[in-house]
Write a structure and sequence with these properties.
Nucleotidyltransferase, domain 5, six-stranded mixed beta sheet, 14 helices, 46 strands, elongated
Length: 711
């Protein structure tokens, strides 16, 4: 018997290590040797190795005892607990029109393509912080299909297009590396790696049973791993970070026991002992009824059952048809009944399973017909099948383990290392979009430089094949520079503007802004900047920049005994034409600032002769005539004055408003400056109102006609 034909499996559990050695005979595995040893300390917690050296010592002891029976062992199959498990359900397709009859290699290639798809999806999904720190530790085929038809196996079939759906499981690198470190310490090489529930389900629930909705729960010491079957395949994997150690902790806390003593007490509860004896940490010997201890641990058993049931319902959506319990923790008293109650299914549908007889494995001794032997037997069975194995490489001095596809390429290594292959190309720099006086301009970024790849110091390409212990050095491409143009390179900066103001020459700098703020020719522009340039200015801006803004002239008066002021603002002209503050000033324009004379009395007093409500309009002898309704008198420094005359600054003005009354014919004659002395002395005068004779005291209305007739 050649040792390289042996299959060696190690189940490195939280509580103990189980080693099995077998050989393949007539398509089945015959068990040759088995060994088991428990950890002396809590070197493992929740399925994770915390003390590598302590675990390595146990592994060495198990390995050495097995080697005395079967000879030198160099490679080992192991399984990881589902701590921090990440599960992806993916599909992959393969064109097979030109392949003829499909072979097992074609089926295997499709499976591994799906695993690679899952790895790629994990790397880009954001489901985990650092995808490069996760390893694929196992997978289960959900279904095959051929040209759209679901099929059990592709081997021997012929079709145009095949597809596969798999559940791929990933664990953090820390979990796998600690396993690897412990194994290497004892001179072993990890040949294959799988997940504990995958191993257990492969021996306990064969394909012929997977049409049933069954749940397998591997209750270990640190974790409870879950696998679910339905419709002919495994549909989900999960994990609960609680298991048998939680119950042991409860007993330890309640009765002040060393953890190992509490573990011994827990195991005795499953027997026929009515009373359990132990010594607590105080050195006191006690002998308690088993029921007392069971009552103390019942709440924790209920919590564990609830956690397992919650994970099952989360993955399965509905109640399963049955639950199969394996693992050392499955022997925890009251656990099957508590899980049945938590799932609301009959207690008979939750059962503890033992590997009394397993398809594909022979020679199982009575010592291995226990619930905790299911997983190690499953690992041994998978060691002889199509499981994942690894090659070791380095990428930029970082150690990477890749599951060994039929052909691994550099691209696979970069993907596993979390390096974006697109980053090798060197992207062009980001271009800029800039608006210049409302016109959009685009400035392209610089060209990127491509990256370099070397394998063992030699130039390589993405599709070059990899072998074990290859060293890859990747130099990422450099991105092109983002342009940083200066304003003068994008927009012409106008010349200075010369302007003459009241005969004096001035020079104004060009008007240039970026996003509404003043800018210079050397200003560096950024994406989406708004640039404006101008060679003309509003007059108000010119006067402000030259500090020539004119203050209004203020005139003070005494009006009816009170102080009053009146302001007059200057007026402007550009090239001798009247202008306002908003008028545009261009190069070589001549600007004049015109000071206004003092205001009129009407302006000071606010009298508006054009107000239609203060006068009426009539026709006098055929000519328009305005008759004031609101009448007033004005005196300036004691002298009568008219509203239209200039109000000299400092004047003392008295203004009297005569109450409104309806105008008479005599008011019309007065407003028309009718002088009766111009009439012939002997003439007879007749006054007509709207063509009818009337008196001088007749009331006149707006629009009336007044005529003077003589004869």
């Amino acid at each position: 018997m050649e040792n390289n034909q042996l299959l060696f499996a190690l189940d490195i559990g939280t509580r103990s290590v189980v080693g099995l050695v077998g050989e393949v005979q007539n398509g089945a595995i015959r068990l040759l040797a088995a060994d088991r040893e428990e950890h002396h300390t809590r070197a493992m917690l929740d399925g994770q190795i915390h003390d590598v050296q302590e675990v390595a010592e146990i592994l060495a002891a198990v390995k050495n005892r097995l080697e005395t029976t079967v000879g030198k062992l160099t490679k080992v199959a192991v399984a990881a607990a589902g701590r921090a498990l990440c599960t992806l359900r993916v599909t992959a397709e393969l064109e097979t029109a030109s392949r003829g009859l499909l072979t097992p290699e074609d089926e295997r290639s499709l499976e591994l393509t799906a695993i690679q798809t899952a790895q790629s999806e994990l790397a880009t999904s954001g489901a985990v912080p650092d995808p490069a720190d996760y390893y694929c530790v196992g997978y289960s085929v959900v279904s095959f299909s051929l040209d759209g038809t679901r099929i059990k196996s592709l081997v021997g079939q012929r079709g145009k297009r095949t597809a596969i759906e798999v559940i791929a499981t990933f664990l953090p690198r820390q979990v796998i590396d600690s396993l690897q470190s412990a194994i290497q310490t004892v001179g072993l090489e990890m040949a294959t790696l799988t997940l504990e529930p995958i191993a257990a389900i492969n021996v306990l629930i064969p394909a012929t049973m997977r049409h049933l909705n069954l749940v397998l729960v591997d209750v270990g010491a640190g974790t409870s791993d879950v696998a679910i079957t339905r419709d002919g395949s495994v549909i989900a994997y999960g994990m609960v970070p609680f298991a048998g150690d939680e119950i042991t902790e409860a007993i330890s806390q309640q009765f002040l026991l060393d953890f190992n003593v509490a573990e011994t007490v827990k195991r005795q509860l499953g027997g026929k002992n009515k009373k359990i004896s132990f010594t607590d940490v105080l050195g006191m010997s006690q002998k308690l009824p088993a029921k007392t201890i069971l009552d103390a641990m019942t709440p924790k058993v209920g919590e564990l059952a609830q956690a397992i049931a919650a994970e099952i319902l989360s993955l399965n959506i509905e109640q399963p048809q049955a639950v199969l319990l394996v693992g050392g923790g499955a022997l925890t008293p009251l656990l099957p009944e508590a899980i049945a109650e938590a799932l609301n299914i009959p207690a008979a549908r939750v059962a503890i399973r033992r590997p009394d007889s397993l398809e594909g494995i022979t020679g199982i001794p009575a010592t291995l017909c226990t619930p905790d032997a299911v997983t190690p037997l499953g690992i041994l069975k998978l060691a002889g099948g199509r499981t994942l194995n690894f090659i070791n490489i380095t990428v930029n001095e970082r150690s990477i383990r890749l599951f060994n596809l039929s052909r691994l390429a550099v691209a696979d290594a970069l993907l596993a290392a979390g390096i974006d292959i697109r980053a090798l190309r060197g992207r062009p720099g980001m271009g800029l979009t800039i608006s210049v006086n409302g016109q959009t301009r685009f400035i392209a970024g610089g060209h990127g430089a491509p990256g370099q790849i070397a394998i063992n110091g030699q130039p390589a390409r993405l599709d070059d094949a990899l072998t074990d212990e290859d060293s890859i050095v990747v130099t990422l491409g450099s991105d092109g520079a983002t342009p940083a143009p200066r304003l003068k390179e994008v927009a012409p900066v106008p010349e200075s503007v010369r302007v003459s103001i009241d005969g004096k020459e001035y020079q104004l700098p060009p008007q240039v802004t970026v996003n509404g703020k003043p800018a210079a020719a050397e200003t560096v522009l950024k994406d989406r900047d708004q640039v404006t340039t101008a060679s003309t200015f509003p007059l108000s801006q010119v006067l402000k920049e030259l500090d020539l803004e004119s203050a209004p002239a203020e005139h003070r008066y005494q009006v009816n005994g009170s102080e009053r002021s009146y302001r007059t603002w200057p007026k402007y002209s550009i090239n001798a034409a009247a202008a306002s503050a908003d008028s545009v000033v261009s190069d070589s324009d001549e600007v004049s600032i015109l000071q206004l004379p003092p205001p009129t009395l009407a302006e000071v007093l606010g009298i508006d002769a054009s107000d239609s409500e203060s006068a009426i309009h009539v026709l006098f002898n055929g000519a328009p005539c305005i008759i004031p309704i609101r009448r007033y008198t004005i005196q300036v420094d004691g002298q009568p004055a008219e509203a239209g005359q200039i109000a000299s600054p400092g004047s003392n003005i008295n203004f009297t408003l005569i109450p409104d009354r309806l105008p008479l014919i005599s008011d019309v004659l007065l407003a028309a400056d009718f002088d009766p002395r111009t009439l012939p002395p002997t003439s007879r005068v007749t006054v007509l109102l709207n063509g009818s004779p009337t008196e001088y005291t007749a009331i006149v209305k707006n629009g009336d006609t007044v005529d003077i007739k003589t004869n």
